[in-house]
Each structure stands twice: as C-alpha cells, then as structure tokens.
Amino acid sequence: MANLLYLMLLAAPLATMANADTADEMGHAIAGPCAEAQFTAAVADELETRIASAEAAAQEMQRQIAAWQLFAQKKQNSTAAKAAQALAIYFTDRLAEAEAKNAQHLTTLRQATTILNRRTGATLALGEIQSSGQVTIGTARGHANADLQAYYTGTAYGHTVPITPQDIQTAKCNLKQANGDALHGKRMALHKARSIKLLKDELFAPKPTILQAACKNPAGGVTNLGKGNCGQDASITTATAGLGIATANNPTTHDKPAAHQIYKDAEGADTCAPYTAQTKLTVPLKARVAEALCKVGKLKLETIQTAADVAPEQLKGNPEFQIIVSQLLTKPGENLDPNKDSDKPKLDKIITDIYSESKDTFQANFVTKVNSEPIKFKIGSLEQDTAIGDSVKT
C-alpha cells in the first residue's frame, strides 16, 4: 500500500483477564495474570514453610543434643549421664542422616521458590496494568486543515511529535485473602501442580505501538499521492503537502493460559523435562515454572524429630540404639552382643529399665529434667545461674 506506512514502536506490555478454567485444584483455576500470581505465590509460601519447618526442627534437635551432652558432662559417670550421652550419640547420627538426605531437596525447594517468586512479581504487575490501547498524538505544527494529528510539510521538517498513552487503568490483585476466597476457594494440590496450564510466554513480551502514517495533499484530507509529492525517494514539493500520522494504536492482548499443560501426567513421571528454551525475557517462562513445580511436587523431605517427638518405643528393639547401649549402659563385665539374637532381649530390658516404656515418663526424665538441670554459665568475668535448656543473654 503506497499511501500507508506502519511504524513499530515498543510499548509497555498490556494484559487482560481471560475465561476461568473450572478444574478442581487451585492451579487449574488460573484465568489470567492475577490468578496465576495467586497460585505461584501460594506454592512459594508452601515451599518456604516446608524449608522453615525442616530447618527449625533441625535446630531444635541440635539444641536438645547439646543439652544431653552438657547434662552428661555435669553428671559424669552416673547412669543418667551415660543414658543422656547415648541419646546424644544416637540422635546426632539420625540428624546427620536426615540433613544429608534433605540437603539437595532443600536446594531444589529454594531454587523453585526463587523462580516462583519472580514469576509472581511479573504476573502480579501484568495483572495490574490494563490499558485501553489508545494513544494520544500531539500536533507537530498547527494548520487549518490538520486532518492528520501530526504532519510534516515541505518547508518544515524535523518536528517533534509527542505520543502519549492514555492514563493506565489498574486492577488490584490480592495475593493472600484472609477469607480463603483466592482462586475461587480452590485447594492447592502441589502433587498435581505440574499439569496446570500457565500463561503464555508471549504475554510478557513487549507489545508494539502501531502508528499509521499517511500523505496529506494541499487540498486537505488523506490521499494517495504519487512520487514527488509524498514518496520515500523524493522530497515533498508543496508547502502544504506533508506526511503525517493518521492513527496510533496499542493493540490490547486477550490472552489466557496455554491450551495444554507442559507435562501430560498430573501426578508426575519419573523425570521432569529440563528448561532449555532460549529467550531474552527476564521473566521465568512457563517451561521453567513447570519444571520447578514438577521437581518440588515429587520431593518429600526427611522428617527430623524434635525432642518432644521422642518416645521410648523408638529406642526399644532399635539395632542402632542397641549398639550404643551395649557400649555405654551395660554393667561392668557384662558383654552383650547386639548382633546376637539371644542378647537383644537383654539390651531391650536395659533400655526399658532406664528409659521407661511410657513417653510421658521418658519426656519428664530425659527432656524436662535434663533441660531444667541447674548450671552456672560463665564467660569471662560474667557468671550467671541458669538451666541447661535456658537461653542466656549477655
């Protein structure tokens, strides 16, 4: 078309909400940027809770192990001291095993949390910006017949044409609603999160502003002028003819989640497809988000016990604990082999006699009593009477 020139300028991304999916799970209720932001924020919160819970349990058990060790040091060679030392040895090993198994899982959870938080921020911003797509074009030079909103004449070149988007309308998106109505009250099923349909990546790409340029002849109006009047390779020959911008438009984008999920299996297969797509976008693409959801949906952190969870039934009949008991809690001259079936009941009797068969009794003797054992805290010239399980402020 000889009379039209399309100029492409980058503009801010535009977004609109799409129709909702009616699936049961929270992740399947994604209908647009705000809904996806609510979902990814909820998953990130869940992962952060798992991380914090595992770390808090490990720290609590570490403190209890230290308390048993300190109690054993204070009581020295008594049976109570040896019993506390046996607990410290056993649970130090269990804690080390759990932390070793969880180390890679926690790294994966943290990586997924970072990806989800970045995606949440991007989709949240996207959901709040809803432009009408209209642009106001200023006039470069006044004219009685300025049909074109901005124009250049044969005698006046190089005018600046102001192009201003209309005021942006915003839509508020509440990530966390106290009444539980986020995403239509759907529950979050993390093990099925890999099958959700995420927003298309194109929604995050810059959208063009389209300017329609046209020629203006001396008589006014937009006409198709030939070469010499408004040609690319010729100058404008009359003072009133010119090249101007007739219209400008920021096309609105009606987008919705992709037509299909990246992973076919809702429950998850043995592997998660790696993220390989190359892109200039800084927003984590749906493939990367889906990969993160796939990986974390398959993870189960090793349970780390706290002192309050410990019960004597965990110790009785426990091969690892029987080995420790055979070395610390047998009588002088008593040689019990934890590998012999005939000696195992004898070791269990020692365990029962010392640690009881009642969880309440065990907790009273080896948690409450140990943690409340008086001790003098001393550092430098500071001395303070406290208890083993207390915190000391200096």
Describe the structure.
Keywords: Signal. By secondary structure, the chain is an alpha+beta fold. Among the domains are: 18-131 and 168-200 and 262-306; 311-387, no CATH class. Helices cover 36% and strands 13% of the residues. Strand 9 and strand 10 form a beta hairpin. The protein is elongated. The N and C termini lie far apart (83 Å).
At a glance:
The protein is of the alpha+beta class and 394 residues long. Among the domains are: 18-131 and 168-200 and 262-306; 311-387, no CATH class.
What is the strand and helix layout of this fold?
Blueprint: E1 5-11, H1 33-75, H2 79-128, E2 129-130, E3 135-137, E4 150-153, E5 163-165, E6 169-170, E7 207-216, E8 242-249, H3 286-297, H4 319-328, H5 344-355, H6 359-371, E9 374-379, E10 382-387
Helix pairs in contact: 1-2, 1-6, 2-3, 2-4
